[in-house]
Every structure is written in C-alpha cells, then in structure tokens.
Amino acid sequence: MAAPQRSLERFAWRGLAAADRLFNRLYGWRSNPLYQSGTIAVALLGVLIVTGLWLLLFYRLGTPYESVARLTASPITGNWVRGLHRYASDAALIAVVVHLFRMLAQGRSWGPRALAWVTGVGLFALLFVCGWTGYVMVWDEFGIVLAREGARMMDSLPIFSEPVVRAFSGERPVATAFFFVNMFAHVALPLGLAVGLWLHVSRVSRATLLPPRRLMWGVIGLLTVAAVAWPLRMGPEASAFTLPESVSADMFYSFWMPFSRRLPGGVAFASAVAIFAILALVPAFTRRIANRPVASKVDEDLCGGCVQCTLDCPYGAIQMIPRPGERGSKSAEVARVNPALCVSCGICAGSCAPMAIGPAGRTGRDQLARVKEFLRSPELHRGGVVVVGCDRSALALTVAAASEDAVFYPVDCAGSLHTSVIELIVRAGMRGVLVAACPPRDCWNREGPKWVNERIYNDREAELQARVERRRVRLAHVDSRDIAGARKAIAAFAAETAALDAARAEESLEVDATCVTAAGVAE
Amino acid sequence: MIRRSIGFLVAVGTVALVLGASQMRLPAFPSADSIVRVSWSARPERVETCRRLTDEEYAQRPAHMRRRVECEGTTARYELRVLRDSVLLVVDTVRGGGLRHDRELYVSRELTVPSGPARLQVRFVRLDSSQVADESLRADTTGADAWQNRAAREDEERERRRAEAIPAALVVDTTVTLQPRRVVLVTYGDAGRQLSVRSGPQ
Ligand code: HEM
Ligand code: SF4
Ligand code: SF4
Fold first, then answer.
1. Nearest to residue B196, comparing CAs of A242, A144, A170, A174?
2. Which residues pair with B67 in a beta bridge?
3. Do B39 and B108 touch, CB atoms closer than 8 A?
4. Can you tell me the distance from the alpha carbon of A41 to that of A30, in angstroms, rounded to the nearest whole number?
5. Which residue of A27, A140, A250, B108 has the smallest Cβ count within 10 Å?
6. pLDDT per residue as tens digits for the range A345-379
7. Domain-located, residue A414
8. Which are the contacts of A489, defined by CB distance < 8 A and separation ≥ 6?
9. CATH number for the domain that contains residue A252
C-alpha cells in the first residue's frame, strides 16, 4: 500500500483538492492548469528566453535606463514584448509555487524523488535571482531599490573589502561594469536554469516538459493580450539622491522587501538562505523511515525477459541484466530493479504478463489472490458494477459507488492494476468494471492512467485479453476528491451496462500468465 | 457554455490580479526625513614606530641590512564624527581594508535625519601617528656604509605616501537645508584633498 500521508501533506492536499475540483469544473481535467504547474513553468521559461533575447538586442550598458525607455516607448517592437517578458516571469513564479506545493501535498518530495525536490528548490532560487537582476537592468526607481537591498545583503558577507553599496552612493556615476555584471548574471542564470531543469527531471523517464497545446497557447495568449492591452509605463530613473516615498514594484519579486528592510543586511541574507535551506531539507522531514514502501522485486524464475517493465517504469528503475545462474530454456536476460530509484509505485506489476515483478504483496499474483477473495465475498452483489480506483481516490469513490449501487475495489494506483484483475471480475459475473483513474497529468506516479489506458484499449503488453467484452469495461478519469464527478461517471457507466445481457459467471476463475519473449513463450 | 464563460472570466481575473501585483506601489521611503550619506574611500596614512637597535641586535643583522634605527609600519586609524546641530549622530573608528588594514579605507554611512535647515559637521581625524621617540633617530644612519642615502630616500618615500594618503584631519562644518526624501552627500576628493557636501550628481 502507498505510504500514509504526513499531517503536513494531508493539510496541504486538502487545500489543493478543493482548488483542483474548482479548476476541473471550469476547464476540465485536460486543461486544468493546476495539474500542469511544472510544465507551464517550463513553457513560460521558454517565453522568457525568446522575449529576453529580443529585449537584449536593444539594451545598452552605457545608458540602461534610456535604452529601456526607448523600447518601452515603441508599441510595436518593444512595449508588449517587455510586458510579456514581465508577466511571464510573474506567472512562472506562481506556477513554480503551485508545483512545489503540489509535490509536497502529494508526498512526492522524498526518497528517489529527493533529487528532483532539491534541484527544484535550486531552480526556484535561480528564478528569483534572475527576476531580481532583470528589474535592476531597467535602472528605474524600483531597480535601484532592489540593487541597494542586494548590496546591503552582500556587504554583510566578508567577501568584498569595499562596500558594494558605495556603487550607488552618488559619489560618481554607477559604473558600466556594474550593469555588465548584472546583465551577465541575468543572461547566464537561465543557462543555470536549463542545466538545473535537466538534473531536475533526470530521474524520471519520458519527462513531460510542456503542457497540452491548448493550455500552453491559452496561457501564453492570455499573457500576450494582457501585455498589449495594458502597456507598461516607465518609472522615473534611478537616482542616488532622491528617495521616493514608494515605487512601482513587482510584488512577486519584491514582496519580501518590507520585511527584509527592517532587518540588518546580514540577518536578511541569512533568513533568505535559511528559508531556501529549510525548503531543500523538506525530504529529510517527509521521508518515511518506519513505513517506507518497499522497492519492487523480480521473481527471476517467472521473468520472461520481455523488457516491458523497463519500458513502463516511470522512474527508469528497472534494467535488463544477463540471467544469473543456469539459463536452461529461459530468456537470456531478466529484469532487475534498482531499489535506489524505485518509488514503489507498483506500475511494473501491471506491465508484467507473467506477473513476475512488483513490490512485495502487490505483484500481479498478489492482486489475483486478492480479487479472488473479493469475488468470493458472500455480500458481493453479483451482476453489479465494480469501480476500481486508487487509494488516493478511495474516499470519493467509496461514497460515489455506494450511492450508485456499485462497489468500490481499491488498488494502489490504476497503473499498477493487472488487467487480469479486470478479466476475473467480468468473468465472475459482475456487470462491468469501471476503472476510475486519476487525470493523466495528475497521476502521483506520473504514468499510471496512460499505461492502463494502453493496456485496456491499445493492446500494450500485459493487455486486457480479447475475450473480455469491452462494453463491460470502461476507463474514466476522475479527480481523486471529486465525489460529484465520480458519481456522474459511475451513473453513466451503470446506465450503459444495465442494457447489456446479464453477465455469465464462470465456475473456474483461472487466467493465462504468459508473455511473448524473444526466447519463446514464458509461463 | 456557462461554465466556459465562467472559466474564461476566472482566467482573465487571474491575469488581472497578476498584472495588478506586478505593478503595485511598494513603500520605499515613507517618512519625510532626509538622509545624510557620508561616503568615500581613501588611502590611509602609513604610520611607523621606530627604535634604535641595541649593539647586540645591530651585530646580528646581516651586513647589508644594518641600520641603527629600524621602523615597523602599519596604517593609521581614523575617527569619524558626524554631528547635526551639534548632536552627535555617529562616532566610529575607521581603518584600512584588508586583513592587515593596508588597503584603502572606506566610509559608508547612511543617517536618517529630520528634514529642515541644519548645521552639519563631519570630522575625520587621524588617531595614530608615527612613533619616533627621538627625532634625531631619523637622521641616524650609523653603520649603513653601503646605503649612505637610504634614510634620505626613505624620508622622500614617506613624504610621497603622506601626500597620497588622506589628510590627518578633515572637517566640514556647514549649514544645509535637508529636503524631505533627499540625500545630502558628504564625500572626499570631489575638490582635492578635502571633504565636500552636495545634494546631486557632480
Ligand atoms: C523552474 C522551476 C521548475 C520547473 C520548470 C519544474 C518542472 C518540472 C517538470 C517538467 C517535472 C517533470 C514532470 C513529469 O514529467 O512528471 C518536474 C518534476 C518534479 N518537480 Fe519540478 N519544476 C520546477 C521547480 C520545482 C520545485 C521548486 C520543486 C519542489 C521543491 C519541484 C519538485 C518536483 C518533483 C519532486 C518532481 C518529480 C515528481 C515525480 O517524480 O513524481 N520542482 N518538475
Ligand atoms: S514500483 Fe516498479 S514501476 Fe514503480 S518505480 Fe519501482 S520498479 Fe518502477
Ligand atoms: S517478464 Fe515481467 S519482469 Fe520480466 S521483463 Fe517482462 S515485464 Fe519485466
């Protein structure tokens, strides 16, 4: 079973689930931006690079403010691009915060995912500093306020013998070298972001980097329209001798200033470092020590070497190795799980036709034993509908199924469901099986809904056998907390299957456990 | 259709919120006070402590290093005092930068003061001076056969360094009108080797 949530995660998830439900209702799960926060952040980073390169063409180190002012005054080539650059950076920050919160709430912060978490915190910090340097480039009132605050913090470090803040004291004009270093940082940090992103997704297979097209262009389009409709205006130029009462500021990148300015530079800097350090240390607090889910294991006697599990594992945790010991008539290779990479999602259990792999107690064979017991239960109403769904959705699906006279059968993750379980339920005389998977972009194990869909409808290895009447099987995507959505899906399926002939219960419930391999048929 | 429209409105509303938060007024310097900024860098003066070697010490030195008088050098400390209408705002000791204090010294202070006309006094005074117990020591070159002119050259060098260094005492005493939310800069070197006051770029 999946590891229980920690109280912090449960609390975070409750808030997230409510927002998810609302956004699903408004945009449908395919375009729910909350499910796509990480990929939206990537798309917006792309927008920032394209618009940033354009803006860079017009930037002058010797006259930074004047060059930006000229650009801002040009409605066709400058203003809206600058606006889009700015709003995309704001939206990227929001997307990253939602993504972080989502990963935390879903318990995806520890174990083999710790690398993604820690590099994610690094990306967050880089994005922040990048925004900071960007606003300094403009060299308006807001720019100098940010620059002085940064200098104040830097001066608390025993690095520079000359106080950095003197660069803005007004003794002499601000050196071009300063604008060069700042611009260099603003241009180089995105390279750091790119490397960081590569590391960030290095442990996931087939990382999904972009949101679905409709959503991506919807977000970019909306920000572009906003940039055109609300042209940016230039603030007054930075001055070492004037102290504005207030400045026009981007709160996403300066919300912390009212707090930090009350603190000595060193304390402000240490607080910022401490906040990011605590964030980076979250995996140490959220990891499960006592009830850590066990890694998947391969029964090498049963493994037919078909490589399907290596293709399906969302975390690249399985490799093929030469079969240890006597090969006999068996395949030359067997699968081997790297426990350091395995998150115990159980998806491999669903991809293995001979049921040779899976975390202990959750292999295909374990699933078969459990479903047989379920089907033997005297209380089970034969001829009813069975709703199969994951633990996360248990609450919503139990309530919804009960109200529609169906029965809920929980599995770890829809992607870990072995299709033989569906087959047995149908052959036992139930009216139909509704597999209620999470929306594909919200699978806590990344690819569960995708693979179960392929196995049911597209004959992906470990496929649902042809003899199972497809009218009695349905895959629906239901948000894990959405009782109303679940009820609707169950009611629709129940109504359709009600019209079918009464299901015929078979006496003997046995299934083939075979897979086609290069070496022949393994059983 | 209704849901789509609401979805569209929510998206537009969210973007409007982003736009609003992207251009909000952030209090920068809400009070009507002024700032007196005292800021400059300069080379500190080198100070030396000289003493006459005993005959025994003198004999131990390699022949080409023999001098009756040896001097150890460091850089002077300075005291910064800032007063507004004779009220002391800052008193601080300033030394050269770097571990051995042999780099330039930096003064960088921002003092928030009520606006209005004010008498502003800034003093920067050297605290240490060279320790030469007996002035006659300076000229004493006994035994430095190979370096007859050395003392003279060292004195020259000392003079040159002193001319490069910040003067031993700097004072500015002036009446200014401190405007609300404006900076008055007290700096060194704008007009030669003295302190000056200004309230705008040079
Ligand atoms: C610029 C900032 C970021 C971008 C562009 C970004 C983007 C992404 C993308 C595209 C994925 C892969 C999604 C998939 O295919 O499953 C991902 C995964 C992940 N992200 Fe981020 N991310 C960012 C920041 C963060 C932050 C701040 C955190 C948390 C501190 C975080 C935590 C994670 C985790 C834990 C995963 C792995 C999820 C899993 O393995 O199940 N990310 N991120
Ligand atoms: S349980 Fe299986 S599919 Fe999931 S990470 Fe581990 S090896 Fe990969
Ligand atoms: S038989 Fe099962 S464990 Fe072996 S390679 Fe195929 S899917 Fe993996």
1. A170
2. none
3. yes
4. 17
5. B108
6. 999 999 999 999 999 999 999 999 999 999 988 88
7. yes
8. A434, A436, A476, A478
9. 1.20.810.10
Decide if A330 is inside a domain: no
With respect to residue A352, please indicate whether it lies within any of the assigned structural domains.
Answer: no
Contact by Cβ (8 Å): A176, A6: no
Q: Tell me the pLDDT of chain B averaged across its residues.
A: 87
In 3D, which of A388, A442, A437 has the Cα closest to residue A27? Answer: A442
| A139 Cβ below 6 A of ligand 2 | no
Classify residue A76 as exposed, middle or buried by CB count within 10 Å of its CB (0-12, 13-18, 19+). exposed
Q: Which residues contact A442 (CB under 8 A, 6 or more apart)?
A: A20, A29, A32, A35, A479, A480
How confident is residue A517, by pLDDT bands cut at 50, 70 and 90? very low
- Measured distance CA(A28)–CA(B111) in Å, rounded: 58
Residue B146 predicted with pLDDT over 50 = no
Q: What is the CATH number of the domain that holds A477?
A: 3.40.50
User: Which two structure tokens, joined as six digits, stand for A215?
Assistant: 């959503």
pLDDT of residue A522: 45
The three-class DSSP label of residue A295 is coil
Q: Do B6 and A86 touch (CB under 8 A)?
A: no
Supply A379's token pair. 């209380």
Q: Can you give the pTM of this predicted structure?
A: 0.90
Of the candidates A416, A419, A512, the one whose C-alpha atom is nearest the C-alpha of residue A458 is A419
Select from B93, B95, B54, B94 the least CA-distant residue to B75: B95
For A201-242, where are the alpha helices, taking DSSP H only? 213-229
For chain A, helix (H) and strand (E) counts, in that order, are 19, 11
- Contact indicator for B23, B105 with CB cutoff of 8 Å: no
pLDDT of residue A500: 83
Structure token digits, residue B50? 């000289």
Residue A266: strand, helix, or coil: helix
Task: Give all strands (DSSP E) within A323-365, no chain letters.
Answer: 333-337, 357-359
pLDDT for position A80: 97
> Are A251 and B11 in contact (CB < 8 Å)?
no
- Residue A74 near residue A232, CB atoms below 8 Å: no
- What is the predicted pLDDT for the residue at A520? 42
- Structural domain tally of chain A? 2
Q: How far is CA A434 from CA A451, B129, B166, in A?
A: 16, 92, 86
Alpha-carbon distance B15 to nearest alpha carbon in chain A (angstroms): 7
Question: Best of A108, A204, A307, A315 to mutate for ligand 2, by most ligand atoms within 8 A of CB?
Answer: A315
Minimum-distance ligand 1 atom for the alpha carbon of A108: 35
Q: What is the rounded distance in angstroms from the CA atom of residue A316 to the CA atom of residue A481? A: 29
> CA B189 to CA B106: how far, in whole Å?
13
What is the domain range of residue A89? 33-286
